[in-house]
Amino acid sequence: MVFIEEKHRYLSSLSDQPKQQALFTLVAEEIFQPPQDNVSETDNIYFSSIQAIKKNSKEGFDTQYIKISKRKVSENSTAPFVHDDFLIFTLIIGVLKFELGKEWLLGVIKNRAKNATTTTFENLLTGNYQSKANIQSLVLVFLFLLDKSKINNNQLIEAYNTISDTHQSFNGDFIRIIHYRAVDIIVQFKLPRDLDKISQLLDFEIIFKKRIKIFSYFVYNILLLALLFASYQIVHSLSEELKLKINEVAIITGIAGVGLFGNLIPKFRVKFQELVLRSFGYPKELNK
Questions:
Q1: Dist CA 108 CA 68 (whole Å)
Q2: What is the mean pLDDT of each run of 10 residues along the chain (288 residues)?
Q3: Residue 20 and residue 84 in contact, taking contact as beta carbons nearer than 8 Å
Q4: How far is CA 284 from the centre of its chain?
Q5: What is the rounded distance in angstroms from the CA atom of residue 276 to the CA atom of residue 288?
Q6: Is 47:34 a contact under the CB 8 Å cutoff?
Q7: How distant, in Å, are the alpha carbons of 88, 118, 156, 170 from that of 167?
Q8: Is 55 exposed, middle or buried (0-12, 13-18, 19+ CB in 10 A)?
Q9: What ranges in 35-97 are assigned the alpha helix state H?
Q10: Which of 159, 160, 190, 272 could cross-link 140 (Cys pair, CB 3.0–4.6 Å)?
Q11: Do 269 and 220 form a contact (C-beta atoms < 8 A)?
């Protein structure tokens, strides 16, 4: 509850922070309203790029990308746009979404300050989603926007562990927004799917055991009948001399009595059912 309340308070505070609000609308797939006030050229490219991505307008994004990509970037550049996480992440999304040339953007990223965010940006742009150096929550949000099919259980777990590490999490608005969105994705992707699978498996287990019970009952009785028939055939194959010495009726009655006795005692049938379960690979520990 504390986490949810903190998240709600923080997101509510973004109403007067258009840059942060714009990023959240992008990653949370919410309605975006670009700010009406005068903004810098760089911020205008940022807001317009988000608008183009949300409208799925390749032409609109390409127009903004051409503008920004005219800027020259040198080694260890101190240009503000180079170190603008909000802008660079948005450009990565747009470049990959609309399949535009990424050489200029890759050059920008390589000239940023070296940190976990920069490393993750480079890996996102080059498709290295599995690197242990990545910020997993950032990878998760990125994949949710561009290719949900690549989201796997390990990424969900690692993203959750990253967010749970209070020494590393929520350091700055960009990462904080990403973390909050990643939590929503984890809940959406992991918990419902796992619970659905568990529920389905439990339902299947009930049906499976019922079918095994019926199957083992018929097999058990067929075996008893086969034993009875085999005994009957053996008796009839005996010589006449032996038949005179043996009371055939007594033998058959005795065998039938054994069959009936075996069928009436539940313990025998239960043991046979357990044997059938084992033969189908059902764990002994679960059948208690």
A1: 11
A2: 66 82 89 81 94 94 95 85 95 96 94 92 94 92 90 84 67 87 83 54 69 78 78 70 59 55 61 75 60
A3: no
A4: 29
A5: 15
A6: yes
A7: 25, 19, 19, 9
A8: exposed
A9: 41-54, 58-68, 85-97
A10: 159
A11: yes
